[in-house]
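Appendix B. One record, verbatim.
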Amino acid sequence: MIVGLLHPGRMGAAIGARLTTAGHTVLWCPTGRSPASAERARTAALAPVDDLTELTARATTIVSICPAHVAVSLAETVAQHGFTGLYIDANATNPTTMRSIRAAFDDSSDVIDAVISGPPPTAETGPRIHLAGPAPAAARAYDLFISAGLTTTNLGERLGAASALKMATASYLRTTRLLAALAHGLADAHGVTDALIAEAHELGAKPLADRGYLPSVAARAWRWQQEMVDVADTLTDADLPAGLAAASAQLFECLAAEKDNFSIAPEAVIARLRTPTAPN
């Protein structure tokens, strides 16, 4: 199968590598992408194309893995290029956004709502992919990911179901990481950090015990901030309180300047949360 990948970020490149290893041709568009993206694409054996026009003309399936805040505009751009194949949106969007993505295409294209749960795949492990959408199109998406050795499940035909699952898991996981950061900041302020970590181990509270994960929280905050805005909107739509998600979005905004800085010290992460922009 000829697959177009938009774009080879950390997750996208890793998924693309699995697809190329499985024998698929995976196209990517270098226009406007960073040298880091180009290196990831090269390592994953992705095939470059001249522009998006060539990618949409050659690919029978496009997999969109991009920051959530550009997911709709990217889908609209692909649709404007006349793409008529299978479009798999695998971004951390909410159900309302997913419906906007579907609306960008006419009936000549099939659109699948997908969510990738877990870290980028390696040779030994992989994330879980959940799909939702019309049965024939979902079956094609399922076969594609299964062929690459990726654990895949079908949540049914209701578009938005996979996005809702992502919002539900993110509402818990992202906030948990922030709560751990705040707990470590409080413990640092009172000189009881070692005791906190020991107590967390006793309680079986892995995120709280794992101070070493704080740099990863900061490095991903630029993406997670928008996720939590979408989570808040989804909670509101479900008549559930959205205050915790909204506060999480504000805290991730405090960390967003550390984009992709996985080498930041945990103490520097906590210092970022002490800035005046942090919510009271």
